[in-house]
Amino acid sequence: MKGVLSAVFILLITSFQLGCEEDTELPEQNLPNIIWLVAEDQSPDFFPMYGDSTISLPNLEALANEGVIFNNAYSPVPVCAPARSALITGMYPTTLGTHNMRTYNAYRTDNQPELGIPSYSPVVPQGVKMFTEYLRRSGYYCTNNPKEDYNFKKTEVAWDDSSKDAHWRNRPKNTPFFSVFNFSVCHESQIWQRGEDELLVSPDAVNVPAYFPDTKEVRHDIAVNYSNLIRLDNQIGEIIKQLREDELYDNSIIFFYGDHGGPFPRHKRALYETGVKVPLLIKFKENQKEYNSDNRFISFVDFAPTVLSMAGIEPPKVMQGRAHFGDYANAGNSDYLFFSSDRFDGMVDRIRAVRYQRYKYIKNFNPDISNALPVAYREQMPMMQQLNQLWENEELDSIQSLWFRTPKPEEELYDLEADPFEFVNLVGKEELQDTLLLLRNVLNEWITNTNDLGRHPENELLSNWLPEGKPQRLPSLELEDKEGKINLFCKQSDATIVWKQPQDSTWLIFDAPISNQKSFSAKAVRIGFKDSELLEYTVD
Question: What is the C-alpha separation between 140 and 168, in angstroms, rounded?
Fold first, then answer.
């Protein structure tokens, strides 16, 4: 695949004026347009491309026919905000400090008052940036529509537009673009919010997995999710239609993926396959492909370096993921996948896991806590309410009870080929002790080598990140006026300087001196820090 793709990704934009007027026509470039179509809260098992015949999803099935189906794509965390922090940085949430759900809360100012946890942006390691900054520096027009939720406060450098109106159609003509479209119609909340809407799938037609009881309520909620997937497919069809109308489809690389596992109990917020395994389709430029499906391990930490590589940009060394395609693709396959679970809203349960070949190892640091955490958000789901009642009445069978049990095992080991739903814990199997020891050691090394911040209480991290309860402010910019040009400097070496003129609505990346005949505002930005004081330069 790399050989096929690299030949068409050889041209880098070496100079591009990000502040150009909307009607400016730029020279046409040979860079691919890249689109992410993101389904919230969905597992592969619900999609016909992965063998489920319950419903037809014609737009996604057509995309799969023209692209590659990836059978082992994973989110490192089974919930959205930490997962999205990995996607936008190419880093593990446990290294970033974004491993808890949520840290930065754009939806409420008090965040988790019952735990004394405010809304905050973790101070990420040196050099970590939102990867779209590199795309913008190379001339890409970058849009996000509309969900952000990165578990930290975004910097203005990330997007040309992040809003419900963000679209590639707003870019300067001939500009390559990276556009993200998030679809909330299939989110967990839609199971109860659309619970009384017209069902597009009969509850009698759905399959009930063995870890759920076969009840009217369970069947109804599963049918709601399938109905929402039909709505999702229609919405995705509109985006693909627009690409074709604009004659951009062929020159575009399209990712379709879920932001973590499915919307149900034992899916979302669980480190089992149902919680971390996601659907992933990639349609490459000109529909080029060497095969229809791919079994390699892909983690969300790989998405950022892969997109940069596809755009001909060398991924920064700080990124923990690897590029799978493009000019800077790494040969070979990933041997291991790593997963984490920590705080979900007001509930805390630290768990770590590693996938290797056909095996998954899970380490439970709090075995006295049930996997069925009473997360208030999830408790709104009719299925969850019924499961709680059946558990209390001792009416769940031995498999359905596994998720509720306490204590849970300190260690779990599963053969995913023989036991894809992870029902049979093989920790005690004598013939697998070498595998158990290997994965235990690999996980411990990963925890140490990646500086897993889950080892520290959240309030301890907060005391380091928020001196006196507030984020540190970046130092003020320094200005040099020389030979008719303005240079700007910041003493924080990994901060990014942004600027804009009075007529601009979007902050531009400062990457070249500015004429001293222009009035402008400028500041320094960095994830986890308060922006520097605004520098105002005025020309009379």
Answer: 10
Residue at 443: amino acid letter? L
pLDDT of residue 331: 77
Which CATH number belongs to the domain containing residue 307 in this structure? 3.40.720.10
3-state secondary structure of 88: helix
Whether residue 314 is contained in a domain is answered as: yes
How confident is the model over 75-128, as pLDDT tens digits?
Answer: 999 999 999 999 999 999 999 999 999 999 988 878 999 899 999 999 999 999
Catalytic residue among 80, 142, 186, 490: 80
The answer to whether residues 143 and 167 touch, using CB atoms and an 8 Å cutoff, is yes
Domain that holds residue 517: 472-537
Query: DSSP letters along 345-378, please?
Result: TTEEEEEEEEEETTEEEEEES-TTS-SS---TTG
Report yes or no on 457 lying in a domain. no
**Among 284, 299, 331, which residue terminates a domain?**
331
80 classed as catalytic:
yes
- pTM of the predicted model as reported, rounded to 2 decimal places: 0.94
* Residues counted in the chain: 540
Distance separating alpha carbons of residues 474 and 491, to the nearest angstrom: 8
Assign residue 492 the CATH number of its domain.
2.60.40.10
Amino acid in the structure at residue 10? I
Handedness of CA 148, 150, 156, 159 (dihedral sign): negative
Q: Domain boundary residue among 331, 353, 382?
A: 331
**CA–CA distance, 283 with 250 (Å, rounded to integer):** 9
Residue 102: which residues within 8 A CB-CB, separation 6 or more?
81, 111, 119, 149, 151, 345
Residue 444 domain flag: no
